[in-house]
Amino acid sequence: MREFFMHSYSLIASAKINLYLEIIRARPDGYHDLVMVLQSIDLADQIDLHSRSDDSICLHCNHPEVPQDHNNLAYKAAALMAAKFPDAFAKYGGVDITIHKRIPVGAGLAGGSTNAAAVLIGLDLMWNLKLSDKQLQYLGSLLGSDVPFCIVGGTMLATGRGEYLTPLPVLDSFYVVLGKYRSLSVSTAWAYQTFRHLYFGSHVSDSLTIENLRQPVCSADMVSAINHQNQQQIGQLIYNDLERVVLPEYRKVQRLKEEFQRLGCPAMMSGSGPTVFALTNSQAKAQQVLESVKTAIADPDLELWVSRFTPSSIRVASFHK
Ligand code: C5P
Fold this sequence. Notes:
Blueprint: E1 8-26, E2 32-51, E3 57-61, H1 73-84, H2 86-92, E4 95-100, H3 111-126, H4 133-141, H5 147-152, E5 155-160, E6 164-167, E7 175-181, H6 188-199, H7 207-213, H8 219-227, H9 231-237, E8 239-240, H10 243-249, H11 251-262, E9 267-269, E10 276-280, H12 283-297, E11 302-308, E12 314-320
Parallel strand pairs: 1-8, 3-4
Antiparallel strand pairs: 1-2, 1-12, 2-4, 2-5, 5-6, 7-10, 7-11, 9-10
The chain binds cytidine-5'-monophosphate (C5P).
């Protein structure tokens, strides 16, 4: 008979932005080899885990667009842990997962991935498994390309599908203004598949495409700017290949980026979008930029946030054993 362990953990799970995203190659498995610089920011969800007396996994979320069943990546993370560690699952039982969503959904900010990372870390603690970051990142890679980064977070160079990670010096002096239209979301699969079709198709049809394909790999300059903590250069070198397919399709997102730039801020779409971020070096400036964009665009569908770079992704806010 199972002893009932009443455990609960509350975790804070940070969003990420891509300071750099370059698509190197279309892979035969349908994915793409990338070079990315990923950065955690302090816009975060709260994930509460409570042990259950039975062996079910139940998920609740306050956001209407977030699936509350086995399609949710956080649910998949718990199911993966139960499958990989059947003895611990049998000993400790099921889990109630409650997601308090603050990170916008379908936004290019790794909201789903960071929730999944929090569940992996939370269950490792609840079930007393003592897994290493590497082991947790491996489990994360089975769930999604951004999950391994979300296990550790901070500032990282990511290659392969996104799962090979090299820590970079912590960048902590940036503030970031985020803008997202509530009603817009972009499918990551659509963005990559459209890019593949346009730039890695068998027939390169026009000279513009050929020119685009010749673009040099310049992540080395970004890495060097980060190593030297050169904020101005980092701002100049932010880059995202997926803008080339998303911005022409979503003119409002292009307009938002231009508005940030008009205010003098380096601005870029994060991941597959449609969130656009702008960099500033003070909270006051970030707040000022937010207010100016709100006035200039004056669309109730546009949501704006001020956030800050943070050196880690998941942290335990409280626990009860
Ligand atoms: O790994 P994840 O499930 O987050 O990826 C979502 C989609 O994004 C994949 O189905 C794939 O179409 C695309 N993707 C890609 N190359 C990557 C990461 C994601 O093509 N490196």
